[in-house]
Amino acid sequence: LPRDLEAGGRWAYSPLAFRQAPSAANKQPGRVVRQLVDGKSVWHFFLDEDPPYNRHFDPIFLQNMDLGIAMRHFAAVAREQGMAGSFSVPNPAPSAGKWIHIASWV
What DSSP designation does 93 have? Predict the structure, then answer.
């Protein structure tokens, strides 16, 4: 087991699955940010959009689909590791510069 995975405990696997998810053009447009809230991990998922590319096949947004696939990988591994949680859209949504908040795993 790589040392960085050992340090992250069970939660190390979900972000790794997110990072290794396939992407239509290998752009990996998803970004995930971990936040500790009352000692619990909350994961915020953002889209780092390339608008001309993402909207080229309008109304199909490839990068949004890529992010959804990566989020599914995250959730599947979290559940496999026994981590409870689900996706929600908090109000107000967290901000991260130019990245677009999509959902949070709480």
Answer: P
Positive or negative: CA dihedral 1, 42, 76, 24: negative
Strands 30-37 and 40-47: antiparallel
Beta bridge partners, 36, equal 41
pLDDT tens readout for residues 6-55: 555 667 889 999 999 999 999 999 999 999 889 888 999 999 999 999 99
Beta strands in the chain (DSSP E): 30-37, 40-47, 87-88, 100-105
β-bridge pairing 87-88 and 30-37: unpaired
Q: What pLDDT is attached to residue 50?
A: 95
Handedness of CA 46, 34, 1, 4 (dihedral sign): positive
Give me the residues paired with residue 68 across strands: none
- The structure tokens listed for 81 are 């590791």
The residues, ordered by sequence, that sit 6+ positions from 51 with a Cβ below 8 Å of its Cβ are none
Global pTM value: 0.87
